[in-house]
Amino acid sequence: MCQHSPECPSADSEDREAAATVACHPEQGWSLLCNGVLLFEDTGELLPDGRVIAPRRPLAVAA
């Protein structure tokens, strides 16, 4: 899928968010990466095979 040199990380790799952005729609809260991953502004992801990666939210800090 990727034609960059060096090739972008695959959708299955841990660093998949490092792939190049091919479409960005901040008004809708999502970006499409070169590896087919839909990246949402809440840090959730939708992989090309339909798997969902839940948002990674920071832990609350005790007051």
Overview of the molecule:
- The chain has 63 residues and is mainly beta.
- It is 0% helix and 25% strand.
- The radius of gyration is 13 Å and the shape is globular.
- The model has no long low-confidence stretch (mean pLDDT 90).
Globular, elongated, flat, extended or rod-shaped: what is the shape? globular
How many strand segments?
5
Mean pLDDT: 90
Strand order of the largest sheet: 1-2-3-4-5
Query: What's the end-to-end separation, in Å?
Result: 47 Å
Strand count, sense and barrel status of the largest sheet are: 5 strands, antiparallel
Primary descriptors:
63 residues, 5-stranded antiparallel β-sheet, globular
Architecture blueprint of SSEs:
Blueprint: E1 21-25, E2 30-33, E3 38-40, E4 45-46, E5 52-53
Antiparallel strand pairs: 1-2, 2-3, 3-4, 4-5
In short:
By secondary structure, this protein is an all-beta fold.
